[in-house]
Amino acid sequence: MTSVSKKKHSFGRNKRTKLANTILQILLLFVSAVYFYPIILMCINAVKSRREMALSVLTLPKKIIWSNIAYVFNDIDYLTLFRNTMVVTVIGVVGIVSISSIAAYMLSRRSTTRYAKVTRAVLIAPMLIPFQTFMVTLLKVMMGLHLTGSIWGLGIQYWGFGVPMAVFIYYNFMKTVPKEIDESAKIDGASTLRSFVSIIFPLLRPVTITIIVLNVMWIWNDFVLPLLMVNSRSSTRTLVLGAYGYIGQFVTQWDYALCAMAMAAIPSIIVFLILQKYIVDGVVAGSIKG
After folding, report:
1. For the segment 211-247, what is each residue's pLDDT rounded down to a tens digit?
2. How far apart are CA 101 and CA 166, in angstroms?
3. Which of 55, 160, 198, 270, by CA, is between 20 and 30 Å from 215?
4. Where are the domains of the chain?
């Protein structure tokens, strides 16, 4: 093949590559627009009057009604609901990270034993069971344990739902951490717990942040479990339940409902935007070490 033909072949290949990248970018922009459209629609209509919303939900507001935000803030007692949601999220995330990281550490260091394999399968299996199949049974059990109507009890319940996925993620990442680190710590006289807390857990920072962000987004915006467990009293409701209060069987106050939904979602969106870089870092770190 002559140098001229090589240049033509290289030029044609580069042209095809650029065309493929352009098509891929257009496709990604379209998918992003599909996902962002409901959020934009919610924010636009959150500051509209009910009459203007009834005329068209797709147009920009002719006049921004800031009083919607003030009314919702006072009507649902936003600060109380924000505190409740924060407490539930912190309890849930701290428990999930603590339990799953220790469990994955112990299982990864004993991965060759039959007991560890069975235990790992049992821990991960709940991911395959739909919540709807046992939510009534769960409600009865929690009522028997007096964990309904309590934001502390609600936070503890998230441990059971979040640990399986977190164990799965931690376990795969933990296999990339050399066992020689544990052996060196034991030689220096460190116990297993001390070795994990002081040496191993700091190495899990990228994947830990990934798990924290995923669970914060899930717990903060969850609707079904709070509806079952803490909807009986207004003092124990979460922000999502506060927004749901404007949706009735016969009448729905859409202006206030959408405003409340936006106010409930904004904190979790801010957390995601701040920590999204670490999610990518966690995934990349695991793939590179593997």
Report:
1. 998 899 999 999 999 999 988 888 889 999 999 888 8
2. 8
3. 198
4. 3-46, 67-289
Which CATH class for the 67-289 domain?
mainly alpha
Residue labelled with tokens 């147009």: 59
| Cβ atoms of 244 and 255 closer than 8 Å | no
Q: Which two tokens stand for residue 86?
A: 């924060």
Q: What is the 3-state secondary structure (H, E, C) of the chain?
A: CCHHHHHHHHHHHHHHHHHHHHHHHHHHHHHHHHHHHHHHHHHHHHCCCHHHHHHCCCCCCCCCCCHHHHHHHHHCCHHHHHHHHHHHHHHHHHHHHHHHHHHHHHHHHCCCCHHHHHHHHHHHHHHHCCHHHCHHHHHHHHHHCCCCCCHHHHHHHHHHHHHHHHHHHHHHHHCCCCCHHHHHHHHCCCCHHHHHHHHHHHHCHHHHHHHHHHHHHHHHCCCHHHHHHCCCCHHHCCHHHHHHCCECCCCECHHHHHHHHHHHHHHHHHHHHHHHHHHHHHHHHHHHHC
Burial of 57 by CB count in 10 Å (0-12 exposed, 13-18 middle, 19+ buried)?
middle
Residue 27: pLDDT band by 50, 70, 90 thresholds?
very high
